Amino acid sequence: MSKPSNDSPAISSLAGGCHCGAITYQFPLPPAIDVEGTDVSERYKRDLIPPSKQKFPTRGGRPNQNKWRGNHCHCDSCRRTVGGLMIDWVTMPISEVVISRNGPVGKYKSSNPVTREFCMNCGTSLFFFGDSRPDMIDITVASLTTPNLFDFLEYTDHLWIEDASNLVLDEQGKGGGLAGILNDGLPKFMRGRDGEKF
């Protein structure tokens, strides 16, 4: 009699969906390319984190492999639409994401250039579409169901601290509710990562 294998199946893509399962999605693993090479597209230079830029490149089940870039967003819209102190995103080209919408989908224009998509059955916030980059989609990291997710994703920054500044410092100018969360060594930006640092 053969012994059952304890090996988990190989992961071929990252997957996730809403809480009730009506909306699911998947997108590819980070490609094994030389991100710092001269013939690499700007998209990969922007959205892939090579081992040389990772905090702990040798940890996990995929040591010394590229990871997708994730960020912590603290903008007012993100915080209010999920009811949390921040929301975590991973950004992908829409062309690389396969979405199955088998239930009612809600769309909400949270500001003039932004549309958010969520499941109308369970309320899970899933996607963010910006008018300024129509070929891209932001996906909520917490909706990913792939095991050992952080073998494939690396957080690189905190964005839109300007909107949450009243949560960072208390009335005496000391640490407020977000101060501990922001004490992780990642760069902090007042708005987007191309702007002023906090």
TrEMBL record:
The keyword NAD does not apply. One of its GO terms (molecular function) is metal ion binding. It holds the Pfam family GFA. Keywords: Lyase, Metal-binding, Zinc. Residues 14-156 form the CENP-V/GFA domain. InterPro entries: CENP-V/GFA, Mss4-like_sf. Belongs to the Gfa family. This is CENP-V/GFA domain-containing protein.
